[in-house]
Design brief:
- The structure holds 2 protein chains of 2 kinds.
- By secondary structure, chain A is an all-beta fold.
- Chain A contains no helices and 11 strands.
- Chain A has strands spanning about 5, 10-15, 20-25, 35-40, 45-50, 55, 60-65, 70-75, 85-90, 95-100, 100-105.
- In chain A, strand 5 (about 45-50) and strand 6 form a beta hairpin.
- Chain A is globular and about 35 Å long.
- The N and C termini of chain A lie far apart (about 35 Å).
- By secondary structure, chain B is mainly β.
- Chain B starts with a strand and ends with a strand.
- The chains are: A mainly beta, B mainly beta.
Amino acid sequence: EIVMTQSPATLSVSPGERATLSCRASQSVSSNLAWYQQKPGQAPRLLIYGASTRATGIPARFSGSGSGTEFTLTISSLQSEDFAVYYCQQYNNWPQTFGQGTKLEIK
Amino acid sequence: QVQLQESGPGLVKPSETLSLTCTVSGYSISSGYYWGWIRQPPGKGLEWIGSIYHSGSTYYNPSLKSRVTISVDTSKNQFSLKLSSVTAADTAVYYCARDPPGSGMDVWGKGTTVTVSS
């Protein structure tokens, strides 16, 4: 099973600033990586798939990069609605696996 | 607009079988894609349980494989989850999701809370 490790566990950033979240895979997942946003009491929402393709309706301030084992989600100019928990997920191999999440909180 | 809705008992007794159904609207399951179940214990992260292809082929999380069965009923446009011999550790919010190949899980149900308790 591929282990996904996200860092940091918690990230404190001020509104309007940039946030950079990291995800590392224990072995190569090519570009078969997705990022999700989850707010309290809500289902996860797909933000990025294919490591760098924004899902339908996702604002351009969200961008993804990386391939192989190292991935990054960048949120430029944080808005109040962006403070949430973010998960990465690999779907290159079965079983699909999620990272443990990064909580993005207001500084 | 594609929508998914989970349904099933919110309370299950230890050692019994948890049964949930996901009803899909706005898209025909038989048209394709994988359809998955994911759970989230209180205060914890996401755990993939398993996925089923529209044709019926399945993939399960090895950690749950001995207790999980996922099935599909294309006539009702539904797919279902059964998890046997449940314990308190199976208490979680259970989500169903559409899982197109190569695209991540793009549509999710709102989730249903299942508590395992006597």
